[in-house]
Structure formats: C-alpha cells, structure tokens
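tool_call: predict_structure(chain=1)
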Amino acid sequence: MIKQSSIILLVFFVSMNRAVGQSPANQEKKFSADELKTDLKYLKTKLESNHPGLYLYTSKPELDRAFDSLESSISNPLTELEFYKHITVLSSIIKDGHSIILPSAAVTNSPGNTRNFLPYHFIILDNKLFADMVYTSDHSIPAGSEIISIDNLEANKLIVQLRDRQVRDGNNLTYPTWILSNYFRQYYSFIFGYPLSHTISFKVNEQTKTATIKALPKDSIYYYRQKNYPDRSFSNLPNEGIKLKIEKDKKYAILTIKDFHNDVLKKEYKQNFEKSIASCFEQISNNETKNLILDLRNNQGGDIENGVYLLSYLLNKPFSVVQEYFCVDDNELKRCNGPSLGLHDPKSNNFKGNLFVLINGGSFSNSGIVSSCLQANNRAIFIGQETGGNPNVITGFIRDIKLPNTKIQVQVPTKQFVITNKLNNNGRGIMPTQFIEPTLSDLLEGKDTELNYCIDLINKMNNGN
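tool_result:
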C-alpha cells in the first residue's frame, strides 16, 4: 500500500525532475504539458483495462492519487527523458516486476556513437556503490573503488533515486538492486542525461579522491571491456544456456540454467530446452550422482512449460505449479485460462538425491515459480540471496504499448498467476535456507562465493560432519 510518505516522495521527485540542468536530453524535443498529460492518462487507462495485478499492493484510491499528483505537477514542457524520469516512480508504487517502462526505441536503440555513458561496471553492496570493472583507458578510478558521488550527487541518494524507478514484485528490493548492478550506466543516463564527462568522488585505500572521467560511446566501452578483461566472456555462447558439469568423483553435478525462454535458448545458445534437460538428467542418472546443484542465479525466467518440464525431473510425486489465473474483464478481475494448470507427473527417471538451488535477486519470474514449487514440496536447500521473483503470485503475458506522444515503451501484463495462495503473499521472494552473499573482494577476484559454499556443504555432508 502507498503510505503518505510515498506521496511526499512523488513531490520530491517532481522537483528534482525540474532541476536536471545541463544534460543533453534537455536540448531535445520538448513536449507540451497537454501532450504529457495525454500520455499519462493513456498509460493509466491501459493499466486499468489490462493489468490484473494493478491493485495487489496498492489500492485503487491510493494509485489514483499518485496519478493525480503526477498529472497536476506537469506545468511546463518536458523532454521525453524528463517525462520518463517523472513517471517511472510508478514502478515502486505499483510494485509489479513485469510492468516495465522504458524510453522510446529512438533512445534505447540509438547507435552506440550518438550517446556517451559512464565507462564502468558498477555493483551495489550493502547500499554502497562500487566500481568493479573499468571500461576506459583512464585508470584514475581503479576497480574496487567505493563511489562517494557522481556529478555532485551522493551515491546513497543516487541509489535510492534509481532504485525507486525500477520494477519489483511487492516489497522485494533484491530485484531492483540486481537490475542496477547490471545496467547502472544505462539507467543513470535515462534519468540524469548524457554529459560528455563525469566528476566522480571515490574512496580507495581509505583515501577520498576526485576525478573527471570522459564519458564514452557504447562501442568504445565494449572495446575497453574486452581489452581490459580478455579472460572474461561477455557474450552468450552456444551450448552455454543449459550446462551440466559432473564433478570427477561424481559427488555432485552442477546444472546451470541461464534462461527459460525458448526463443533466447534457440537464438542465443543454439539449444532446445527439453532435449538439453533430458540429456542432462540422463547423464546424472548414468553417473549415479547423489548431489545436484541447480544454478538459477541471474535467470530472468521464460516459458512456464519449461519450468514444469524441469520440475518433472526434480520431484517424485505429482505436483502443481499454478493454482489459477486471473485476467481483467470489463474492469473486473476474473478467473481465466492459462498454461500448466492442474497436476503434473514426474519423470520415471527423476533425480532422487540431494538438491541444492543457487538463487539471487536476478532469479525472477519463472525461476521464482520453479523455486516456489521446490520449496512447497520441501525438495531443496536454497543458497544465496532472496529471489527477485515472488513465490505466491506474479503477472505475465505481456502486452506492449507506446505512449502516443513521447513513444515511451511500456509492458503491461495481462494475466495474474496464483502460484500458491494469495494469502501467503507478503511481497517478498524465496528466502534462502543459507544466506550467502559475495564480498567485494570475492567479486573482484572472480570467486563464486555461493557455489563454493555449496560444494563445501556437500563435502561436509559426505564426510559426516
């Protein structure tokens, strides 16, 4: 529910929106207040007529007040990105992970040499911002530096402003934090523009310093990324979407699933989900492996049927995945049809050993559904951080819309999935059995903290400790 403080925050964001200042976005086409209000009303109408989870966390009167506040505060023309900044506070009010708002295709698909970005990969740990990879020839700010401020905006306030504009399921914060840790420079630019340089205050070896860093176009960033980190892969490689590794003494196997989307697996990884999974479990069975580590970290979800297929190899009794679906019909939430309802049978050669599931804030959507089913059946030990995906109720079946004037892109879900029971929903993800989070030094050294912990746990179990 929106508390009064949320309405106050809206006013704060509106005032900040007018103070952006010198970003190149301000020099682009400005839309009249009437055009912007038309776009906002269009967005509200589309959400109300299609979105089945619109009032799951925020009541209609409260959401109406939020839209009224946004509309009444539009008094002057704004550029597309200024308006984008203005309306994306809705993400932390609606609290639906599948209701994504992005700038127009003209912004998101612009050639890499037309806009400049912060040439770093940033991560957020304990609400602090760190540079963990340097994508420029200027090494004034070394990897591992804590960022104190960017362009005179304190890092902790910067994190709050950007995170409040990211999607999430309910009260979960691991997913918006994960998004920023992976796409920080893009979202920073969407909100604060594309200056040619950035003044960055940072701390390294307990000393605070300041440097002015030249912003770079995407192609230059990709060049220095590969040049500075030649041993790392930044591309999706064939046969890497679903990957099985069986440890040489057969104590454990690691099954990594990066994506459940059939189209992504086919185009990016040249793999078929069912064939790949069947082959993996055949190898696991033939090797008589007793411990299986299922890695669902950073898996953004995909086709629910693939989740059901995977579960049929992990469970040994009939199981359900989705209890019921709801859709908006004549402005009312009504039951409707959807895939994978009812009971599903396990495979005859299902895995019966110990199951460990690695999760984090990027385990979203279908990864949350799979994790929820495993949790409901007391089937797995979960290691890592809270999932971004909700285990009880989510939305899906996206309808893409464009706002008529600014052409801002919005994904509006059309089906609500009740996975367990709505009464169980507290707006949080799957909580790990063992909370394990990498440290900054782990990340800089390329250590897999969660996997290493899991392997140590398996070894202790095998040794009777």
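agent: The chain has 15 helices and 21 strands. Proceeding to next step.
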